[in-house]
């Protein structure tokens, strides 16, 4: 196995600085792997090879003159298709925006390039980033490198598949309802959903939109937890309107070994069942954490129930995404909302109610969330992290039924809707940081992740816990056939 394919971005950056490998050489290495593996994965869907190679040459020349562009000097990487990259299309998988070619970069791209990164491609997404699978009418379907018959998750599925297959050194995705964490779980890589507002989202939005979307965040994806920390240090910080007065100084991790941590564990709930294959791996990881000396409490719970958290999350989530609806689609949601009974708690009802709620109703819901954020703050005075599932199952087979409500996955032999974001909502609703970390493979050879949730603004703690956990039980492993 060529270790460069699955080395950390941190190590590759060090190798470049130490002249162990050239920037053009490393870029060509990843491009060659993409030529071999991407046709069957369809993970990278937009390319800028000539521009990337020119930048890599410039990076080599700069290094020869003693110049260092930053911590990612010359490191090749990809980003999710929904990030603006000047000169390349940003479509969100929507054919209406096929000709949308932004003239300027997103903030994330600018900061990565300012740190020296060489971005050579963009990765696939579902239509409007609104599916747990990554397929659309522009770019087609992305396959999971662990099993091509299965999806890599959504909406950052192309990015997760690219990293798992060793086609890129580092990635960037986004998350509003698990869109970064779920693909990390399904593909066996790391993903970090930052505290809301920590990393600017400008340039990751439908054409012409500059207002940040409630709950939505952008964050790094990687094969190694230390790369999440490296990327967070590059990406975190106020956007233009706040830069005059604001600075971001995240606190250090709460612990430097697993025995330093007070760990709450919440891994089961009747309203959000988990397949036994996933639950077994989570239990094994929790046992290892306890054996390493951490103080583990499997009965600890915040003041909110999972069901109540989910109801409020769905209300505010659908309100947040209503701005993406066309006038026609919004009018349809208004019609649906008028027909709903009070007892209807279906996904269809959640969408219609949230998308059409009055501003007064939104204000009341937001007040509930604000109180919940303070309750979480109190919870994290007693515990350092909360461990929870990322998703109910490992990666599931492709299912492109246009009637999303009719899709089903099997959980312990019973059919369930596949878009289950109850666990993702624990962190998302209250703006908490959450790191998805690989913890092993099922008997069927599919990866499973663990969600590590922390106190708002304390992102380094969840990332460091993920890194320490990898040292105890192992972290990323390459999918068969890609070594």
Report what the structure shows.
- It is a single chain.
- This protein has a domain at 3-249: Alpha-Beta Complex (Amidase signature (AS) enzymes), CATH 3.90.1300.
- Helices cover 37% and strands 14% of the residues.
- It has helices spanning 9-17, 23-41, 49-64, 107-114, 157-164, 181-187, 225-235, 276-291, 306-321, 327-339, 347-356, 359-382, 422-429, 459-473; strands at residues 44-47, 76-80, 118-123, 135-136, 140-141, 171-175, 190-193, 217-222, 262-265, 295-297, 385-389, 409-411, 414-416, 434-441, 447-453.
- Helix 9 crosses helix 11.
- The longest helix has 24 residues, at 359-382.
- It is globular.
| Sequence stretches where pLDDT stays below 50 over 5 or more residues | none
- The CATH superfamily of the domain at 3-249 appears as Amidase signature (AS) domain
Which CATH top level class of the domain at 3-249 fits?
Answer: Alpha Beta
Q: What is the name of the CATH architecture of the domain at 3-249? A: Alpha-Beta Complex
